[in-house]
UniProtKB/TrEMBL annotation:
Domain Cas12f1-like TNB, chain residue ranges per copy: 340-409
UniProt-recorded Gene Ontology molecular function terms: endonuclease activity
Pfam family, one: OrfB_IS605
Protein family: In the N-terminal section; belongs to the transposase 2 family. In the C-terminal section; belongs to the transposase 35 family.
Regions that span the bilayer: none
InterPro entries attached to this UniProt entry: Cas12f1-like_TNB, RNA-guided_DNA_endo/Transpos, Transposase, Transposase_put_HTH
Native species: Levilactobacillus fuyuanensis
Keywords for this protein: DNA recombination, DNA-binding, Endonuclease, Hydrolase, Metal-binding, Nuclease, Transposition, Zinc
Name of protein: RNA-guided endonuclease InsQ/TnpB family protein
Span of domain Transposase putative helix-turn-helix: 13-42
Probable transposase IS891/IS1136/IS1341 domain segment(s): 212-328
Domain of life: Bacteria
């Protein structure tokens, strides 16, 4: 019997750009709207159930409503489809409905585990579209692969999706095209961004590694993330901060002011924004500028994280809480621009992918501690953000602030091993 995706030891994600026809775009939009509607219906039923249970007086009408909601939530897919008959239209993917309900339950599970994520909220309609489907394999399929499921590659330039049919794509890794029979497909996400580009994200699973095993280098590094430069490692090497958002901030602000004026003009003339051509043209321009910054930053972070993981057996970084740091209004923009949390998440999954070790440590006193003798700067001697270089009053060692912090981070990481 073939293993499920969860049972496979190796997983990989691939996101490719697709080029749907007009009819396929219509189907994507309908399935996206239906997925959002089902998620919101689940949220609405749970909210009603919660508040009705707060009623202390046992009114028959309230008790009947509670029993009805509890029964509907046992089989939500059937219950929602029975009340809203339009969801039974052949345009809709049945696996889309199942995934929308699964995503809602996952959101609650994440809330119970983390609590900081918050309870599930209603999804509002926007300029982006997304829905999920799953790849199913027939009973007669003995070996699940990329070319024999409900989501499959028909050739190196086309894939097949339920309800949508054949789609042309580009950007698929060549190393996976040579392993079509060795890799199976799991959850598949179809999406459209604010610019109007369509993508398909495929979850892959296999019995064998997706990347070749890297040789043991016996190199360990600690990295200090800062705003003066992007990062400084324990070897003294620095990576400059590209500041992509700052480079385009003036142009983006000008475009956003123009967008705001067009929105006010459309409202004054009592025109719907979706039908205002001038507004939509400017909205697209703003979205392209924001997308450019996001793509530049993501490309930069991928290059930095891959280089760190491939060139070192152990990478240690400080555990940063970006949400807390963003409360500092003076540094919020600069912190958002560097993308520290994204880098840490990339280092985490790439360490598993390349069989390396990645650790995060408590950043407490990593800047204030002398890496040579362990003396901690406190009281009047405590370093401020303006102090980029300092001399230890205990042992007299001269330190460059970020290099010293990186050494302390590496030492903390080695101590936890």
């Amino acid at each position: 019997m073939a293993k499920t995706m969860a049972q496979l030891p190796y997983h990989y994600g691939v996101k490719v750009r697709v080029f749907p026809s007009t009819e396929q775009k219509r189907l994507i939009r309908r399935n996206s709207d239906a997925s959002r509607f089902i998620y919101n219906q689940m949220n609405g039923m749970n909210n009603d159930l919660f508040w009705l249970k707060q009623v202390k007086i046992p009114i028959t009408l309230v008790l009947d409503r509670i029993a009805d909601l509890a029964e509907r939530l046992k089989k939500p897919s059937t219950a929602i489809s029975n009340i809203h008959g339009w969801l039974n239209h052949p345009d809709f993917d049945s696996l889309m409905k199942a995934n929308a309900i699964k995503n809602y339950k996952t959101a609650w599970k994440l809330f119970h585990q983390v609590h900081q994520a918050g309870t599930p909220k209603f999804h509002k309609r926007g300029y982006t579209q997304t829905y999920q489907t799953s790849c199913l394999y027939g009973v007669k399929v003995m070996t699940p692969a990329m070319n024999n499921g409900s989501v499959r590659l028909t050739d190196p330039h086309h894939l097949w999706l339920p309800k949508l049919g054949r789609l042309r794509f580009k950007g698929f890794p060549s190393k996976l095209l040579s392993r079509v029979d060795d890799v199976r497909v799991g959850t598949t996400t179809v999406s459209m961004d604010a610019v109007g580009h369509y993508f398909v994200s495929l979850q892959m699973g296999s019995e064998h590694p997706f990347v070749s095993k890297q040789p043991v280098i016996e190199s360990k590094v600690g990295i200090d993330l800062n705003l003066d430069n992007f990062l400084t490692d324990s070897n003294g090497k620095m990576v400059a901060n590209p500041r992509y958002y700052r480079m385009i901030k003036g142009k983006l602000a000008k475009a956003q002011r123009k967008l705001s004026r067009r929105a006010r003009r459309a409202k004054k003339n009592q025109r719907c924004l979706s039908e205002s051509k001038n507004y939509q043209k400017q909205r697209l321009l703003v979205a392209k500028l924001q997308l450019k910054v996001a793509n530049q930053r993501k490309n930069f972070l991928h290059h930095v994280s891959t280089a760190l993981i491939k060139n070192h057996d152990l990478v240690v970084a400080e555990e940063l809480r970006g949400k807390n740091m963003l409360r500092n209004h003076a540094l919020a923009m600069s912190i958002s621009d560097v993308g520290w949390r994204t880098l840490l998440s990339m280092l985490s999954y790439k360490a598993d992918l390349y069989d390396r070790i990645f650790l995060t440590v408590n950043p407490r006193n990593t800047t204030q501690t002398c890496s040579h003798c362990g003396y901690v700067m406190t009281g009047r001697n405590k370093l401020t953000l303006a102090d980029r270089k300092w001399t230890c009053p205990s042992c007299g060692t001269f330190h460059v602030r970020d290099h010293n912090a990186a050494k302390n981070i590496l030492a903390k990481g080695l101590a936890t091993l």
